Amino acid sequence: MRANAMLLHIIARGKIARSPEAELLDRYAKRITWPFKHSELPDTGGKVPPPVQTPVREVLLDERGKAMSSEEFAALLGRWRDEGVRECRFLIGAADGHGDEARARADHLLCFGKMTWPHLMARAMLAEQLWRATAILAGHPYHRSG
């Protein structure tokens, strides 16, 4: 891993298997220039794996979370990276979401707007936003705001 690179780690409940959502996740994961990992847990039970790197930040995708623009999301990741965070973990819960304890423990709660999204689609959307955020931070001309 590069000296200043922060691992972006999606940890999601449920199996994505072979699906259009899995293809989208893979498509964007391949474009992310930062270290990237995707881990799956069963719908219920199973332990969230320990961090690969420390210090670590945890972001829960949660309906009570903060909706952010792509630029705000990129700025948050860039700030954490610049502060020396080595791993940023994005937790996507099962259909019933996350419990109060997990929400209280998280460093940030993030939502993709007020609509409810299937968790398989949320993975692909998150991977796209991680790619977009890293492109913004790299000054890549792809990203267009507004």
From TrEMBL:
<comment type="subunit">
    <text>Homodimer.</text>
</comment>
<dbReference type="InterPro" id="IPR029028">
    <property type="entry name" value="Alpha/beta_knot_MTases"/>
</dbReference>
<keyword id="KW-0949">S-adenosyl-L-methionine</keyword>
<keyword id="KW-0698">rRNA processing</keyword>
<keyword id="KW-0963">Cytoplasm</keyword>
<dbReference type="GO" id="GO:0005737">
    <property type="term" value="C:cytoplasm"/>
</dbReference>
<protein>
    <recommendedName>
        <fullName>Ribosomal RNA large subunit methyltransferase H</fullName>
        <ecNumber>2.1.1.177</ecNumber>
    </recommendedName>
</protein>
<feature type="binding site">
    <location>
        <begin position="112"/>
        <end position="117"/>
    </location>
    <ligand>
        <name>S-adenosyl-L-methionine</name>
    </ligand>
</feature>
<dbReference type="InterPro" id="IPR003742">
    <property type="entry name" value="RlmH-like"/>
</dbReference>
<keyword id="KW-0808">Transferase</keyword>
<dbReference type="Pfam" id="PF02590">
    <property type="entry name" value="SPOUT_MTase"/>
</dbReference>
<comment type="function">
    <text>Specifically methylates the pseudouridine at position 1915 (m3Psi1915) in 23S rRNA.</text>
</comment>
<comment type="similarity">
    <text>Belongs to the RNA methyltransferase RlmH family.</text>
</comment>
<dbReference type="GO" id="GO:0070038">
    <property type="term" value="F:rRNA (pseudouridine-N3-)-methyltransferase activity"/>
</dbReference>
<keyword id="KW-0489">Methyltransferase</keyword>
<dbReference type="InterPro" id="IPR029026">
    <property type="entry name" value="tRNA_m1G_MTases_N"/>
</dbReference>
<feature type="binding site">
    <location>
        <position position="61"/>
    </location>
    <ligand>
        <name>S-adenosyl-L-methionine</name>
    </ligand>
</feature>
<feature type="binding site">
    <location>
        <position position="93"/>
    </location>
    <ligand>
        <name>S-adenosyl-L-methionine</name>
    </ligand>
</feature>
